[in-house]
Amino acid sequence: MNRRTWIVLACVLCWFAYRWQREPSRAPRRPESPLLSIAVLPADTAGAELPRAQDVLANVARVYASCERYRDEGVNWTEFIGDGESGRDHQRETQFATRFDRRRGFRWEYRELEAGGRDDTRMVIWGLPERAQEWWTVREHAIDSGEWGSLRAAAAGVSSGTSTLIPDLLDPQDERDALLLRLVEPIVRGRDDVGGRPCYRIEAQLEQAHAYVVWVDVEQYVVRRVHESFRLDDCRVDETIVCAPELDPRIADDELAFTPP
User: Fold this and answer.
1) Domain 47-256, what fold?
2) Of 82, 112, 129, 243, which alpha carbon lies 20 to 30 A from 32's?
3) Distance of alpha carbon 155 from alpha carbon 210, whole angstroms
4) How, if at all, do strands 210-217 and 69-82 pair?
5) What is the biggest distance separating any 2 CA atoms in the chain, rounded to whole angstroms?
6) What is the pTM of this model?
7) In which order are the strands placed within the sheet that holds 131-136?
8) Is it the case that residue 140 has pLDDT exceeding 70?
9) Closest C-alpha to 80, from 88, 72, 70
10) pLDDT, mean over the chain
11) Mean pLDDT in residue range 182-199
């Protein structure tokens, strides 16, 4: 990671520590979110032959890299589960959205809402891949500029990886750049129903022994759900990303534009 990325990550960790100390008595509660509540139900796969995970992931990369337009909206729910009686739990919900047109540009956004629905943190990255701009409330609404690849990589820690999970597939800088192409020993464990869509359930590992599960649409080869579990100091972290993707939709000009408030 470059120096800018480390600075951003340090600021985010300090901010989380402050909020955790400020809200020590908040009881763990999973928010009511239509996207997050999408059920993953066992599907009847008796007699069905499952494909190789590598083939499924190769098709995922091909679909995203070749589509002309793409739209999604999603939710990332993160739970920090403390160890022992002294450990405290902390929850975080962020929302993200992607608008992408290979010829006209893109707009990626994430936001975190505090209790009561008030905007707490918001970031928008928009423009063309080679001439992108970034606006972030944490930096007192200053606008940064650069290549989309660099800006989204720097935002990965803040956004819990949603700035790179799908954008790295839409705009691949390297054939192994996308996280889903770096999974260790992936294997298709079955087929599940995710929001009414049949999906392959692929289980794998990431660096540092992270347990990783991704649900890939059987017909469209788009990502619909991701779950990651790992340890961080004295707590366990569980992250769930649920996504509602659309391939080659009609995208209006105002979906790609952004004017900072």
Assistant:
1) outer membrane lipoprotein receptor (LolB), chain A (2.50.20)
2) 82
3) 20
4) unpaired
5) 57
6) 0.80
7) 40-42, 184-194, 197-206, 210-217, 223-232, 235-247, 69-82, 90-101, 105-113, 119-128, 131-136, 143-146
8) yes
9) 88
10) 81
11) 94
